[in-house]
Design a protein that fits this description.
It contains 11 helices and 2 strands, in the order ααααααααααββα. It is mainly alpha-helical and about 325 residues long. The protein is globular and about 60 Å long.
């Protein structure tokens, strides 16, 4: 017999997904990630100094404090609410789970670029893209704007959707929030520049570990779901993805990006400019088609198919485990 609590958590996660699809991330509500960012910023300013060895040690300590602290704080808060009333705990956990997901937010961010692009308004499309990427966007044309948007949808399908789903089903809101803490640490200090190379080393490595399995399962479910979608280049996409991703500097980000590129029949990667400095990213996918705004819609459809397949696989595994 299955344990009731396992199915209670599964129900909460499914409801959280539905709520995220409907309401997304209301800006008027407080967001846990904002609090994480403030703590990380404060600790970084206080601790990121000294010798390279000292900075690496203090960066590791900060990573531990933020991730473990987030888990303990969330767990303790939910336990306290459960003592007051079980429903308070369920509602609070549901709210926290919704805050860990970004399905609607990612879709809306992509459409915010696509809509003016369809209308020929490159200026607005560039401005909208600049809100979700770090690269310079002021002089990008339609193919490059499209590339930046598709890459964002592909990469964030993991850290914004599938990875939080995995950790939520494994350990509820506390573990999902701990994952978001890892992801936030990486996005703030996980850079290979002079300031963060040592201090952010532990954060970047932990993020690599946390995303290793979700990235690979996401690539697989993207490929599986593409067989149900029209206009996708599924033949040879699986082998091409693993070939292309092997050349990507990230052990994880290259997988969803390469899969989306191959399924859409476009090429991602190439030359990006960051505050005037040119950076060459690994090229992913065979350019069967020229990048155009329609590929943003295709990336969104793949994103939805990918997380639906990902969730279905996890649910099947959980049910099989519980009934066996």
């Amino acid at each position: 017999m299955a344990e009731p609590m396992s199915f209670t958590l599964l129900t909460l996660v499914v409801i959280a997904v539905l709520l995220d699809l409907v309401i997304g991330d209301p800006r008027s509500m407080p967001h846990p990630v904002v609090g994480m960012g403030k703590v990380i910023g404060c600790l970084e300013r206080s601790w990121n100094h000294g010798t390279p060895r000292a900075r690496r040690l203090k960066g590791g300590l900060m990573t531990s404090v933020v991730v473990i602290g987030t888990y303990i704080l969330a767990s303790s808060g939910l336990m306290l609410l459960a003592r007051l009333h079980p429903w308070l705990k369920l509602v609070a956990e549901l709210w926290l789970l919704v805050n860990c997901l970004a399905i609607k937010g990612l879709r809306d961010a992509a459409l915010a670029v696509a809509t003016p692009l369809i209308q020929g308004d490159l200026t607005t499309a560039r401005q909208q893209l600049a809100m979700v990427v770090g690269r310079d966007t002021a002089y990008l044309d339609e193919p490059e704007i499209t590339r930046g948007t598709v890459e964002t949808v592909a990469e964030n399908s993991v850290d914004g959707i599938t990875a939080p789903l995995l950790f939520a089903l494994l350990g509820g809101a506390p573990l999902a929030l701990a994952y978001k803490a890892i992801n936030t640490l990486d996005s703030m200090v996980g850079y290979r520049n002079e300031r963060y190379r040592e201090f952010g080393w532990a954060s970047a490595r932990l993020d690599d570990v946390a995303n290793w399995f979700p990235a690979r399962l996401t690539a697989l479910t993207l490929w599986l779901s593409a067989h149900l979608l029209r206009g996708m280049h599924t033949r040879g996409a699986l082998s091409a993805t693993y070939r292309d991703a092997a050349h990507h500097p990230s052990p994880n980000a290259g997988l969803p990006e390469a899969m989306v590129a191959n399924l859409l029949g476009v090429q991602l990667g190439g030359m990006n400019t960051y505050q005037g400095d040119v950076s060459c990213r690994t090229r992913l996918g065979i350019p069967r088609e020229t990048l155009a705004v329609r590929h943003i819609e295709g990336a969104i459809r793949l994103m939805h198919g990918g997380w639906l397949g990902f969730l279905a696989v996890l649910v099947l595994l959980i049910v099989f485990k519980e009934v066996s």
